[in-house]
């Protein structure tokens, strides 16, 4: 009876052993010594001990095994590139040699993946060829992406460059050894021993330099990762939220629409009003200079600073007085000058200006704007309206020396994004 019981145990163990050999992870069962196994089998608790030992070994080996495939996942990135138009960066990698998924059991499945835009022509999320290739010409795939300036709402298409390479995936998305050189991103070509695809997307300096004005330019690129081997289908979406924060330090402007490129010549519009109490009458006048301040940044600055000066000595004038002087005189004598005050209208509010004193205009990036076509710019820009009103306070005509009066009013603009 005992011998029969012993034989049943041996048979049961052999069945377990034979079944386990079908698992690659259990091939080390051959290291178990038969005498030890038989010794265990002669003990009363052998039947319960042996299955427990086998189970724990299987759990251990399964836990330490490496997965043979990794499914692609949607890829998302958000980037901001800050630079001045005069000095764009040499190159910027949006994705640098990134592999998304692999398959060691069926290497061609991921090694033949390819990438395409959502449209051939619509640049709103990127336009490029959607045609799958196999062994096409070795070059970058050119993508045209619409970028929109956030305040002016002007749009402009810039080029990006995409490429891919068949590779062997190791341990991370950035550890995939390429088997050959780069190819067009629409090229599904793979090579022996590869099981994944590297993807690379970049902006070159010549592409960044194409942005036509300063400002905050935004665009969203959306690409498909497509499976060729097996069912043809989209396996992942790649989305890049791109912001180009571009200054134009050397191209700020104080725009006077009424004068264009000509030197402005302004008349104070002096008029005489007869008065019995003032021999010769009373003189007064005013004029408005249409002015718009361009910060080289499409009015995205938080503040601007404006300084007005008549380039004359202070004499004994009040701080808010500016003057024109009689030709041939210094203007030091009050009879040889005509004084006026200046008010700037900023965002619907009057700002009293003082001679040679800097005024800071806050909240420019949310204030009123005006689209204008400035000389030298291929697209419309927006500036900050700030008309200047020059007002001559009434004075007795007899109190001034007869003659021609003239002067200069200098307007200086400063901003974080402008060169001094």
Please tell me about this protein's structure.
With 420 residues, the protein is mainly beta. It folds into three domains: 2-17 and 34-64, no CATH class; 69-247, CFA/I fimbrial subunit E, adhesin domain (Immunoglobulin-like, Sandwich), CATH 2.60.40.2520; 253-414, CFA/I fimbrial subunit E, pilin domain (Immunoglobulin-like), CATH 2.60.40.2040. The chain has helices spanning 2-20, 34-41, 46-64, 107-111, 205-208; strands at residues 69-70, 75-84, 91-99, 102-103, 114-117, 141-149, 155-169, 176-178, 183-184, 196-204, 215-227, 233-247, 253-255, 271-275, 278-289, 292-294, 303-309, 322-326, 337-346, 349-352, 358-362, 370-372, 381-385, 388-396, 405-406, 410-414. The strands form five sheets. Strands 2, 3, 5, 6, 7, 8, 9, 10, 11 and 12 form a ten-stranded mixed beta sheet that branches. The longest helix is centred in the N-terminal third of the chain and has 19 residues, at 2-20. The protein is rod-shaped. The termini are far apart. 27% of the residues are buried. Mean pLDDT is 86; it is low at 1-6 and 19-65.
